[in-house]
Design brief:
By secondary structure, the chain is mainly alpha-helical. The protein is built from six helices and three strands.
Length: 150
Amino acid sequence: MFVGMSDLDLAEELRAAIGDFVRRARVHDEMPPGQAAVLGHLARSGPLSIADLARLEQVKHQSMARTVGLLADQALVALGRHDADRRQVMLTLTTAGADALASARLARAAGIARAIRDLDDDELEVIRRIPEVLRKLQPAEPERASTTRS
């Protein structure tokens, strides 16, 4: 299937397949992807400002402020002040936020695990190598367009 494909064609095929996979894995998500992404950033990085999160997600500050407001209303994040610059609002993940993120990740992983059960041994061997190979493909700093999403 991929014999004779150019690197660019293979890259596009990979991008499309990964995109389809991610969309299908999110079908049963109870939490919108933008909210899950914010909780994930806070879980990995610790406290972040709205500006930090907007930059990471490549959205406008106002859009991120709305997302953060929804998360705060659900008590999934807590708002506090920066130690050095009291004007800056910092967000932290609450216990409820960590629990919601873990639950969302577990539900998604369970769905993927159900699909994996249908694979044969050769396909399973390929699947076991995919995470390692994908990590090798990630650039140190992703090149992104200069525009932000709304």
